[in-house]
Amino acid sequence: MKIDLKTAEEIEIMKEGGIRLRRVVNALLKQVIVGETTERIDRIAEKLIIKEGGEPSFKKVKGYFWTTCLPINEQVVHTPPSKRRLADGDLLTVDIGMFYKGYHTDFATSFIVGALSNDKITDFLKTGKQTLINAIASAKAGNRLGHISDTIEKGISGSGYFILKELTGHGIGKTLHEDPYVFGFNEKPINKTMLIKPGLTIAIEVIYSLGTEEIVHEKNNNWSIITADMTMSACFEHTIAITENKTLIIT
User: How far apart are CA 125 and CA 247, in angstroms?
Assistant: First the structure.
């Protein structure tokens, strides 16, 4: 495992990239309405990224030809945009990355499209959002990656939901996916996991479902991963940077 710790100058570039990516996201989410296709949302995303002086990170992944991943309901991650139209009450995940001045940033959020919702799904999404906030708080110099994993596991499993263990957060920087993996569960004792040092840049991801930790590839789709029992799933993700004195939320 080779960890690329970033300099203060590199983190500043990533901070600027993150600011620009959030502007893209804020503009993009206004385009997510009932009846819209995920294909059109993706085209808008690419235009917004280029306008901000960046390039779509995901298009740099071999074999992936889109700017975003846009899973709906039981779709979990890596779902390409399509001609599918969003329905009232769909649970949509917007996963997007931007390459800016040689460095990637990565962000994801999940939400209900339209006005149709229920308390069960509202609570499900609130849990994921809060768990990501708590996980970021545990990501600081002197702690270990296991502290992040432990926080995610307690937040999700402790609330009766299911962590999709085969899917993880990751290091990020000059490439979209760098070492280390950032697990959403305790894959080993905390004191056996990597020490968090200043200069570490990672994308923390909370990826979970309502009914199962089992995932499968969607039929007739080379990329999209779905829950094995077809229950709803969600993903919340931020790119962060560790400095001597604090943790920066880049996105």
Answer: 24
Q: Where are the domains of the chain?
A: 8-249
Torsion sign, CA atoms 181, 139, 11, 197: negative
User: Phi and psi of 131, rounded to 5°?
Assistant: -65, -40
3 state SS of 26: helix
Per-residue pLDDT tens digits for 152-163 = 999 999 999 999
Give the Cβ contact number of residue 84 at 10 Å. Answer: 15
User: What is the rounded distance in angstroms from the CA atom of residue 154 to the CA atom of residue 173?
Assistant: 28
Structure tokens at 219: 């039929």
**∠ Cα 95 203 133 (to 5°):** 90
Residue tagged 């999700």 (tokens)? 156
Superfamily of domain 8-249: Creatinase/methionine aminopeptidase superfamily (3.90.230.10)
Residue 222 has pLDDT above 90, yes or no: no
Count of residues making up the chain: 251
Of 97, 89, 100, 102, nearest to 34 (Cα)? 89
pLDDT score recorded for residue 115: 81
Give the CA angle between residues 102, 107, 111 to the nearest 5°: 160
Residue ranges of alpha helices (H) inside 94-206 are: 119-137, 145-157
CB 57 within 8 A of CB 102: no
Q: Where are the alpha helices (DSSP H) in the chain?
A: 8-29, 38-51, 119-137, 145-157
